[in-house]
Design brief:
It is built from 16 helices and three strands. It has two domains: 110 residues, no CATH class; 169 residues, hpI Integrase, Chain A. By secondary structure, it is an all-alpha fold. Strand 2 and strand 3 form a beta hairpin.
């Protein structure tokens, strides 16, 4: 702060990239953005740009550093910024962007170790690299390879198609059992119970759960949760938990978060809780978030038309239609009037049609 006041540090985002310790610098930058002193930039972009400075500096080959810088400047960062225009970025988005850059760097090094460069690289070399690396590496290198071909740094070739693995869902009986544990586990942390309940009831990823605000909890004659359009009704027992949490949220006593509207406030100024921290606390309860979410969305498309589920829970209609096809759900299975109600009117009891 003294250096800023004396003009020894420019009041710009670029200047903050080099400040140490980085956590303190990041905290100060978020305070300055929340006060309007610095232009508001998505937190994940700030963290990515800071990381990128160090990553580029660590690349020993100048030509490699130049290529990676060009790839990041013209491909990775523009995509991050476009996504940020549509809504706050998630930690996963930043990590995936970082992985693209890291694997582009390692691919260039791999070429050098094999006596190759981008200009002499052939389809057989691409195929060999894919054989030697993991599925995640193969998926994250694909944007770089396509960019290289588009910018004519390489000859045209066909990168193997990206493969997306999906977690196997838990059974409906397991899902109901876990929901019952959350409702009756009075000795469990309230924050964790509420977050896990939103995952298991409404099939929401934690990156979306942490972006919910208390304004998304609508309470009048009935409690509703605004996840899409229309808002989803909250079952009575869980509604009590949700309202209790709204009135007793953590991390509200610091100067950075007074008056925070986040449903799960974080410790940083104007920021929600980190989804990975929330995931860790849920996993500690023995609740598999990804498998639980997969079970929830499949149950919803079994009970209601896929377009209704998509609108109410914030999913893409193509996704819910595909899940409906996989589960064998049809419109004929929906009772009359189901197309008018929102998913998640859940009660903890078994039904014949699971």
């Amino acid at each position: 702060m003294r250096q800023l006041g004396r003009g020894q540090i420019e009041l710009t985002h670029e200047a903050f990239h080099a400040l140490e310790p980085w956590r303190a610098a990041s905290h100060l930058r978020e305070l300055l953005m929340s006060c309007g002193v610095l232009p508001a930039i998505d937190k994940q972009i700030c963290l990515f740009e800071r990381w990128l400075v160090g990553h580029l500096a660590a690349i020993s080959d100048p030509e490699h550093a130049q290529i990676v810088r060009r790839f990041t400047t013209w491909e990775v960062l523009p995509k991050l910024r476009r996504n940020a225009d549509s809504g706050p970025l998630t930690t996963s988005s930043r990590k995936y962007a970082g992985d693209q850059v890291k694997h582009a760097t390692s691919f260039l090094q791999w070429l050098t170790e094999h006596g190759l460069d981008l200009g002499t690289c052939r389809q057989s070399d691409i195929d060999l690299w894919h054989v030697e690396h993991t599925s995640h590496n193969r998926n994250t290198i694909r944007p770089f390879l396509l960019w290289c071909a588009t910018t004519k740094l390489t000859r045209r070739f066909a990168p193997p198609a990206a493969k997306i693995s999906q977690a196997a869902p838990i059974s409906q009986d397991q899902r109901l059992e876990l929901l019952g544990r959350l409702l009756t586990g009075h000795d469990l942390p309230l924050r964790t119970r509420v977050a896990a309940g939103i995952v298991l009831l409404y099939a929401q990823p934690l990156t979306r759960v942490v972006r919910l605000t208390i304004d998304d909890v609508i309470h009048g004659d009935h409690v509703l949760l605004q996840l899409g359009d229309p808002p989803s009704p909250v079952p009575g027992p869980f509604a009590d938990l949700l309202l209790e949490w709204v009135s007793s949220r953590d991390n509200m006593n610091t100067a950075t978060n007074r008056g925070s509207r986040w449903l799960f406030p974080g410790r940083r100024a104007a920021q929600p809780m980190n989804p990975y921290s929330l995931a860790a606390s849920i996993n500690d309860l023995g609740i598999p978030t990804t498998a639980g979410r997969a079970a929830a969305i499949r149950q919803h498309v079994l009970e209601m038309p896929a377009p209704v589920v998509a609108d109410a829970l914030g999913y893409h209609q193509v996704t819910t239609a595909k899940l409906a096809s996989q589960t064998g759900a049809t419109w004929s299975r929906c009772a009359a009037g189901d197309h008018l109600r929102s998913p998640s009117g859940w009660t903890p009891q078994r039904t014949d049609d699971r």
